[in-house]
Amino acid sequence: MGLAGDPGTAKTWLILELARTVATGRPFLDRFATQQGPVLIIDEENGEARLHRRLARITSRSPDDCPIHIASMCGVNLSHDRWIDSLHGKVAEIQPSLILFDSLIRVHRGGENSAEDMATLFSVFTFLRHDFDCAIVFTHHLRKMGFVRDLGQRIRGSSDILAYVDSMVGLTKAETSYTLWHLKNRDGDLIKPLSLSVQDTDSNTTVISVTGEVDEETTKREQARDLIMDALADGDKFREELAAFIREAGISDRTLSAALRELETARLIVGTLEGRKRKYSTYEPLQPSQPIYNAMHGLRGSHPGNGDLTPEEKELLVKQWNDRGQPPVSLGRSHWFNLKGLLYSSDTYVAQQRHVHTPALRQILARWNNNHLEVPNESEATEVRPAE
What we know:
By secondary structure, the chain is an alpha/beta fold. The protein is built from 13 helices and 14 strands. It is 38% helix and 21% strand.
């Protein structure tokens, strides 16, 4: 089995918990049965002192004679016959039920992108499994995310890595929670994604546990939101372009719509119409070089309240107004209301309809409304709402 994840996703904690439960015969994560037996950990990433510290924290609930053996930072090189013979000798001595390699890239000198080199390494694993009737688990890394959200496609190196294993799981992190994904199972159905926690219960104990199953629809929306923000980082995109990006990740158009609504509500993106097509851009703070609304007519009525604009946004709007040679205004209450009235004059509305101004300006003014504001026009009244 392979366990793939980005750095800092608690892969080592998880394999140590696996070692503890196999060594004691207890269920892994309190739900998956194990067959008790000795465990051998081949570690070329963390060092023996760190592993012993972590094991002491998670085995405080286990018997003292927990049969876990560690070979750490020994320079293991399974591309060399001498190291293969040495490993065989150690495995014959310990007779482990489980061998853990942390991580795959550290225990050989072949190219992880070479199918031939990976096949040579996996032949060593195959002989170990058959000769000593043991299970093998290794940790591995993921490629940088880019536009690919499918974890199976993100497994670093040759496609032979995923092809070889009987089972592959992925581990991801969001803030302080972790998600365990089952990516491949040669002998049965995939297990639903699980939410994990790694919690220090006291000064001497760390507990790794399942907190529940992950709602896959929620996860898909999160993936869609990430994809949308990644795509818009390169510039404005029409909805059809965003749909093409997320389709590669197996995300439906319905989920895209939900993700777009969530991002607009959170004021992270702005949607505008260009003809019959909807175009999206990221919300960015207004820059002084951008044009202010061409509000040349006098005050058409003041509107109380200033929404949740930041002081910086207010000052920027005032500065641009004053820089255009208009009558000076300040952040004083009455003057501020007058400025708002001027910004919402008829000329402002006409200019907005012609898409003269930046999405950032439209976003600021829409947020200024609190709920809504009717903007007078020569022929009709049109409501301006937040995020529209």
